Amino acid sequence: MTEQTKIQFSYYLLKLWIEYMITIVIFTSITLILVFDSNQPFGIIIAIVIWLIGRYHFINTLRNLNRSLNKKPSLEVTDSYIFDYINNIKIYWKNVRKINILHIKGNSYVNFDLIDKSLYYKQLKNPISRILFKLPDPDGISVKTEISLVKGKNEDIYEKIYNYHKKNRP
Fold first, then answer.
1. Nearest to 148, CA basis, from 100, 109, 112, 111
2. How far is CA 47 from the centre of its chain?
3. Does the model's pTM come out above 0.85?
4. What does the pLDDT look like over 19-42, one tens digit per residue?
5. Are 77 and 7 in contact (CB under 8 A)?
6. Number of DSSP helices (H) and strands (E) in the chain, helices first
7. C-alpha to C-alpha distance for 87 and 133, rounded to whole angstroms
8. What is the per-residue pLDDT across 82-95, written as a single tens digit (0 to 9) for each?
9. Where are the alpha helices (DSSP H) in the chain?
């Protein structure tokens, strides 16, 4: 059995904390506004629906914050795969046709062009993400990993991931 080389990337704590605080403030504010609105029980029903829809994002952000506080990696890149702990997804190099870097609204992503997208789809836990994944994706950006939450220069992180892909693609 051959031992795989791997690199691990840490979380960018400041951005993670900011995202967590914004998430808490938005969900709490919306909930309080709707619960104390004079149009009851409609406000409470809408607040429950919003929490049901947004709970995965809230839980995922909390999980990532917990991982970062316990000094666990945000990304792990090996000779066989990249494990995106931010989204809890493993992508095997043999399933990646090509990769590129994307910049969307101030955030940087590594975009993966997959040979078989069903392997990625099976790993999605969020029902909203599963529905959105099935919609037409004209730009081909549905399979991506946010590297803005990873500590380091985004271009350097992308370069390391790209080099692993180039070295290990079949």
1. 109
2. 25
3. no
4. 888 888 888 888 888 888 777 788
5. yes
6. 5, 7
7. 14
8. 999 998 999 999 99
9. 13-35, 42-69, 117-121, 127-134, 154-168
